[in-house]
Amino acid sequence: MTTAVTPSATRRRAPAVPGRPARMRVLWLLLAAVLTALLGAASLVIGSREVPWTDVLAALQGSADNLNQAAVTKRIPRTVLALLAGAALGLAGAVMQGVTRNPLADPGILGVNMGASLAVAVGIAWFGMFSYTAFIWTAILGAAVTAVFVYAIGSLGRGGATPLKLALAGAATSAALVSFISAVVLPRADIAQSVRSWQIGGVGGAGFEGIGRMLPFLIAGAVICLLAARPLNSLALGDELAAGLGERVAVARAAAALGAVMLCGAVTAIAGPIGFVGLVVPHLCRLLIGVDHRWLLPFSALTGAALLTASDVAGRIIARPEELDVGIVTALVGAPFFIYIVRRQKVREL
C-alpha cells in the first residue's frame, strides 16, 4: 500500500541543509563563547596601562579607589559596546549575505553603514539632533533607504542583482555618501571634528546611557534575524524552489533585511560606521559549521563579538600609548579579505 504525498505537504517540508555534525557545531559554539569571554576579560586588563586582576575584580564590584580601578571602570562600557556591536554586525552580515545570496555582502560594502552615517550627520547639522534615541531612529531610516537604493541599482540590467553588481553599486553609493557627509559637516566648524572622529568608527567613547538606548533595537533586530533562519535556508535554494516549499519569498527577504538594517543602524548611531566585520565573520563561520542558518546566525554573532573586541584590544596595543580606533583595525583586516573574495572566481553567489 502506498501513501500519496499531497502538494501542500511537500510545500511544508523543510529543506535539508548540508552541514557539519551537530556535535561539532556545539563544540565550535562553546569554543566561540569561551574565546569571546576571554577577550572580554582581556579588554578590561589591557590598555595604555596594564591592570592587575585584583583591581579588575575590585572595579567590577564598584570600587574606584585608585587609577587602575578607575581605568577599568572606563573600560567596562567600552568592552560591553564592543561585544554588542560586534555581535550585531556579524549577525547582520550573515543575514545580508543570505538575503542577497551575495558573498560580498556587508553593511559597509553595500553602503548601509554610510547611509546611516549621512542621516545622522544631517540630523545633527540641520536639525540640532543630539539625543541617542533620535540618532538611532534616524540611522535606521538612513540605513533602510540606502539598502533599498543599492539593491534597486544593483538589480538593473541583465542578470538582476548579481554579487559583483551589488558590490559595485554599494561601493559607488558609499563614495557618494562620504562626499555628501563632508558637504554637510564642513560648513559647521562646531561639529566637524566630533563628526569626523565618530565617522571613523570606534567604541572608546562608550557610555551606558547610549548602550541602554541601543539595546532594545539590537534585541528586536536580533530576534527578527534569528527567526529568519529557516526562510534563509529556503532562499539559499533559489526563489522558485523556496516558493515551492511554501515560503513567501518577498516577505521573508524583506523581514530578514529589516532585522539586519535595525542592527546596522543602531550600532552605527552609537559607534560609527565600522566596516568589514559583517564580511569576514560569516565566511569564517561557514568554514567551521556549514551553511545552515539556524547554526550560522548565532555563531556569527558570537564570532563577530570576539573579532571586534580583539580588534579593539589590538588597537590599544599597536599604537601605545595612543590608540587606533577599532574601525581602522577592522579595515586593515577586512580589506585584504575582501580582495581575496573578489579574486576567487568560483565564488559567484551563495
TrEMBL record:
Membrane topology field: Multi-pass membrane protein
Regions that span the bilayer: 76-96, 108-128, 134-154, 166-186, 206-229, 250-275, 295-314, 326-343
Top-rank taxon: Bacteria
One protein family per Pfam: FecCD
Keyword Isomerase applies: no
One example GO MF annotation: transmembrane transporter activity
One GO CC annotation: plasma membrane
Keyword Disulfide bond part of the UniProt annotation: no
One of the protein's GO biological processes: siderophore-iron import into cell
Chief place where the protein resides: membrane
Keyword list, A-Z: Cell membrane, Membrane, Transmembrane, Transmembrane helix, Transport
Alphabetized SUPFAM superfamilies for the sequence: ABC transporter involved in vitamin B12 uptake, BtuC
Subcellular location field: Cell membrane
Family recorded in the similarity comment: Belongs to the binding-protein-dependent transport system permease family. FecCD subfamily.
PANTHER family per UniProt: FE(3+) DICITRATE TRANSPORT SYSTEM PERMEASE PROTEIN FECC-RELATED, FERRIC ENTEROBACTIN TRANSPORT SYSTEM PERMEASE PROTEIN
Protein name as annotated: ABC transporter permease
